[in-house]
Design goal:
The structure holds three protein chains of three kinds. By secondary structure, chain A is mainly alpha-helical. In chain A, helix 4 crosses helix 6 and helix 9 packs antiparallel against helix 12. Helix content of chain A is about 75%, strand content about 0%. The longest helix of chain A is centred in the first third of the chain and has 45 residues. Helix content of chain B is about 75%, strand content about 0%. Chain B contains eleven helices and no strands. The mean pLDDT of chain B is about 90. Chain C folds into two domains: about 140 residues, D-Maltodextrin-Binding Protein, domain 2 (3-Layer(aba) Sandwich); about 150 residues, D-Maltodextrin-Binding Protein, domain 2 (3-Layer(aba) Sandwich). The N terminus of chain C is likely disordered. In chain C, a hairpin with a 5-residue loop joins strand 10 and strand 11. Chain C is elongated, with a radius of gyration of 23 Å. In chain C, helix 13 runs antiparallel to helix 14. Classes of the chains: A mainly alpha, B mainly alpha, C alpha/beta. At the A-B interface, helix 1, helix 2, helix 3, helix 4 and helix 6 of A face helix 1, helix 3, helix 4, helix 5 and helix 6 of B.
Chain lengths: ~290, ~280, ~375
């Protein structure tokens, strides 16, 4: 009797393991289908023009998401650009210059603290420190000076990306074969030369993957950006303009989207965000996996 | 150029110095930013804390005072239910991946888990809205927990897998040779041996979701009153910070800073626990 | 040995049960007598941010005497209409009465009634906090982005003696579907043909370029307060509670009027239709503040839906009844204007028409 139960229990366990694993795997597919089905009315009603339509007019049920697309891309790339030198430097510092020891260890933990601050707190902090500074710059440049806009959002977003890209790039850099580096030193190269001519070129695909994954994160970042972007659905004129991102329009308008098409359109924006981040993550992860073997 | 300056050695040295100081400078500015941000949050936050924040619900709009007891309880509720849902599933998937390494299916599952980690949280919110809130016609704290549970899965799975593959197979084989079933071996040998890593995976998961608002906006919704019912809407600390941060009320800002400091300290505490666990209970054989 | 299996199984089992039960509808049927009672005393409402300071005070006061706990989420009027349409809340709130299209889109007949009057004020953040005088043309000009500088001649002409800075004007509006926006754009459409043809009136409109968006009255007020040079429209209570400056507006009779309880009340002296759907912006009463409006609560006429109990429906209607009677005492301290007697009579008739299972709830 006891034995039978043990066999049964074992069977149930093995089943359970494979079932939950497979469910986890198809979760993404289920997400995709859920989003696709719920946004179908909008896809039909809006057509392809949705992607490059410039007007977002929920009253007339006229939806174009170009402003959100442009806003999202500009903020994400700008923040990546701002954070890149810092991330690379910190990654070199921790992965190449001082890979071991107490002090670098502390540095690493300190930089990782940036990841401990929630998005909404970044937004709150940015609104009371970065936005007033940006507002002063805007006043000097004689333009409307609201303080919030693409530039402010990108600065805060770039800080949020640092811990993420540093840890990805550090991992890649620290995997550089020692023989390669030693060969370069033996030829009389300085450290800067080893880094710029050996470490970075050999790891370029891994580093790019690190930035790609950071980009994926920037694209979907919601709360901090919603607080700081200015929420204005239009094509921005310059980097100080208020703008709007795909994630923020969902956060702001989802609970009040009256009418099926409006709601379904917001889900369509979500679908797009899902598809883009999924593709970015698949590519990024595959590259990282390839270089780590 | 001196005769000894072979191939511009002097210039190369200068370049190297500049490069090194650039790396130092940029790294230190990262550290400086961390201090600036944390200092600002703590300076604003600790001055804002008072007993009322922990013991009272919000006052009517525009009246000073009150606190965020409702949101503190709400956050604890939403996060702990998410953990209860996610941990058994996450650990199981981790076991599966560790046991079936190298198989095509488990490679795909592992990739799916990685991708899941990169899905914007707001999208998960939409999916849960479509799955639960819309059909039931009710905002509820449990729908928020499910959204957060999905976000918790990847770190739990990754950590469980990575910990279990470090455990020598000899240990497992010994147990199996003694006649213990696979289930027994996992429960009695593998999981206890890897408990440190698995536990820290769970903590990383909790740290990841504790500050989330985006997936809760249209699932857990909000509630100014104290609520212990998982079928009813609740407020959470990050949601309150979001609402209060963009408002004009000075007293709301104060409470939001207080909330920020509670939240950040909680997450830093979790991170410290992870660090301690990782150094003390690391799988070593 | 055995207990530990049970522990693990129970653990996994509980998780599974919670997981499964949360996927279905079944979760609500925990019919513990106490829990049911409590559920009947919890009312969920959502919508307009315009009357939020008032509602949160009213519900807090009503809760003290009645034990009814009301969760009011200020998500914007558009949200209020949507959530009542989806039946996710017990009542919705909106500062724009329902359009014919909204009524047609509802799954069942709804009723609406006003709870108070409020004013949209034009608030701004300028050094020295001057009290500006603005004509309808200037307001339309600023919000159409035709007037972009604070020291514009048109503004200066109406405000002799005020030193206007050489600053760009930042304009803030609402991002969410908003009744406050409806009131404001409804007014602008009445006074400016340019506005009517280019932008129109609605809960959310297609704003001119270069403006900022804030979420809720709270968000717009926060933006104005945070940045010098910003102008926006918010409800009077938000401006007063936060010591923000707001403008006197020239009304249809040609007088400059400061938004106050009295000048708002004057707009609502006319007759109220039975369905209470009436726009009172740009009133031609001599001393009336022109950007004023009622704000409405929307609920289903037949309250027996989604397995609601009769007790809950009764609690809800009684609370709403209280709001238009005793609750009116809360309006003045928060700078809202109380309902005029005619509106109270109309609202009473609406509340009396609400039924549960075909029977009127209020006898």
């Amino acid at each position: 009797m006891k034995n039978r139960w043990r066999v049964l229990e074992n069977k149930i366990f093995v089943r359970w393991l494979s079932i939950v694993s497979i469910i986890t795997m198809i979760l993404l597919l289920v997400f995709f289908l859920t989003l696709l089905i719920s946004s179908w009315p909008a896809i039909k009603a809006n057509g392809f023009g949705f992607l490059w339509g410039k007007t977002w007019d929920p009253v007339a049920n006229h939806f174009g998401m170009l402003p959100f697309l442009v806003g999202t891309l500009i903020t994400s790339f700008l923040s990546l650009l701002i954070s890149a030198p810092f991330s690379i430097a910190a990654a070199l510092f921790l992965g190449e210059y001082y890979p071991k020891g107490l002090v670098p260890n502390i540095f690493r933990n300190v930089i990782e603290l940036l990841a401990a601050i929630p998005s909404v707190v970044y937004g709150f902090w940015g609104l009371y420190t970065v936005a007033p500074l940006v507002s002063k710059i805007e006043m000097k440049l004689h333009m409307p000076a609201p303080g919030v806009g693409i530039f402010t959002a990108s600065i805060v977003l770039s800080i949020m990306l640092i811990p993420y890209s540093v840890s990805l790039i550090r991992q890649v850099i620290s995997m550089t074969p020692t023989s390669l580096k030693e060969a370069a030193y033996a030829l009389g190269s300085t450290r800067a030369e080893v880094i710029t001519k050996v470490i970075i070129p050999t790891n370029i695909s891994g580093i790019s993957a690190g930035f790609l994954l950071s980009l994926g994160r920037a694209l979907g970042e919601t709360m901090a950006v919603t607080i700081l972007i200015g929420n204005s659905p239009e094509i921005p004129h310059n980097i100080f303009s208020p703008s709007y991102t795909m994630a923020s329009v969902i956060a702001n308008e989802f609970t009040e989207a009256v009418g099926n098409i409006y709601l379904s359109t917001l889900i369509e924006v979500g679908l797009l965000l899902f598809v883009v981040t999924t593709i970015i993550n698949i590519i990024g992860r595959m590259i990282i996996k390839k270089v780590s073997y | 150029m001196t005769p000894y300056d072979i191939q511009g050695l002097q210039g190369r040295r200068v370049k190297d110095r500049i490069f090194t100081s650039l790396v130092w400078g940029l790294t230190f500015s990262c550290l400086a930013v961390v201090f600036i941000i944390l200092f600002y949050i703590f300076e604003k936050g600790i001055g804002s804390l008072n007993w009322a924040i922990f013991s009272q619900n919000p006052k009517p709009v525009g009246e000073n005072g009150g606190g965020m007891l409702n949101a503190i309880v709400g956050s604890l509720m939403v996060v702990s239910i998410a953990a209860i849902l996610a941990i058994p599933v996450g650990v199981s998937v981790g076991i599966y991946l560790a046991e079936n390494r190298g198989r095509k299916l488990s490679d795909r599952i592992a990739l799916a888990v990685d991708v899941l980690q990169g899905i914007p949280s707001i999208v998960i919110g939409i999916v849960i809205y479509v799955w639960i809130v819309k059909p039931t016609g009710k905002f509820s704290s449990y729908s928020g927990s499910i959204a957060l549970a999905i976000m918790m899965l990847p770190p739990i799975i990754k950590n469980t897998e990575e910990t279990l593959i470090l455990i020598p197979t000899t240990l497992k084989e010994a147990s199996l040779a003694l006649g213990a079933s696979y289930f027994r071996t996992t429960m009695k040998v593998m999981l206890p041996a890897g408990i440190g890593g698995i536990f820290s995976g769970c903590i990383i998961g909790i740290a990841r979701i504790a500050g989330e608002v985006a997936p809760l906006l249209f699932t857990a919704f909000g509630n100014p009153a104290l609520n212990f019912n998982i079928l009813k809407p609740v407020d959470t600390i990050p949601k309150v910070i979001f609402t209060y941060a963009s408002s004009p009320y000075d007293d709301w800002h104060r409470i939001a800073w207080g909330g920020s400091v509670i939240l950040v300290s909680f997450i830093i505490l979790l991170n410290t626990i992870i660090k301690i666990f990782e150094s003390r209970w690391k799988v070593q054989f | 040995m055995k207990t530990s299996i049970f522990k693990t199984l129970a653990f996994a089992g509980t998780a599974l049960v919670i997981g499964l039960s949360s996927c279905g509808n079944g979760g609500d049927k925990t019919t513990d007598a106490n829990a049911a009672n409590d559920a009947d005393k919890q009312i969920l409402g959502a919508g307009a941010t315009f009357p939020y300071p008032l509602y949160s005070k009213m519900f807090s006061e009503y809760g003290k005497t009645s034990g009814i706990q009301t969760n009011y989420q200020s998500i914007g009027s558009g949200g209020g209409v949507k959530q009542i349409m989806n039946k996710t809340v017990d009542f919705g709130a909106s500062d724009a009465f329902l359009s014919d299209a909204d009524i047609a889109a509802m799954p069942a007949p709804v009723v609406e009634f006003p709870t108070c009057l409020g004013a949209d004020v034009i608030s701004y953040n300028l050094p020295g906090n001057p009290e500006l005088k603005l004509t309808p043309e200037i307001i339309a000009g600023i919000f159409l982005r035709n007037i972009t500088k604070w020291n514009d001649k048109k503004i200066a002409a109406e405000n002799p003696g005020v030193s206007l800075p050489d600053m760009d004007i930042s304009v803030a509006h609402r991002t969410d579907g908003s009744g406050t926006t409806f009131i404001f754009t409804d007014y602008l459409s009445k006074i400016s043909d340019d506005w009517k043809t280019k932008i129109g009136a609605g809960k959310s409109v297609n704003w001119p370029e270069g403006e900022l968006g804030g979420k809720g009255n709270e968000g717009v007020a926060g933006m104005i307060k945070q940045t010098p040079g910003t102008i926006g429209y918010i409800e009077l209570a938000y401006a007063i509670q936060n010591n923000m400056s707001y403008a006197q507006v020239k009304n249809a009779a040609g007088n400059y009027i400061k938004p106050t309880i009295q000048s708002t009340s004057l707009c609502a002296n006319g007759d109220i239709p039975a369905d209470t759907r009436i726009s009172i912006t740009n009133s031609n009463v001599d001393q009336a503040y022109p950007i004023s409006s009622f704000t409405w609560i929307i609920l289903y006429k037949e309250q027996n839906y989604n397995n609601r109990s009769k007790d809950k429906a009764t609690n809800l209607v009684k609370e709403l009844w209280w709001m238009i009677h005793e609750g009116q005492a809360q309006t003045a301290p928060l700078n809202y204007a109380p309902l005029p007697p005619k509106a109270v009579t109309a609202a009473e008739a609406v509340l009396k028409s609400i039924t549960f299972g075909g029977q009127p709830i209020l006898q």
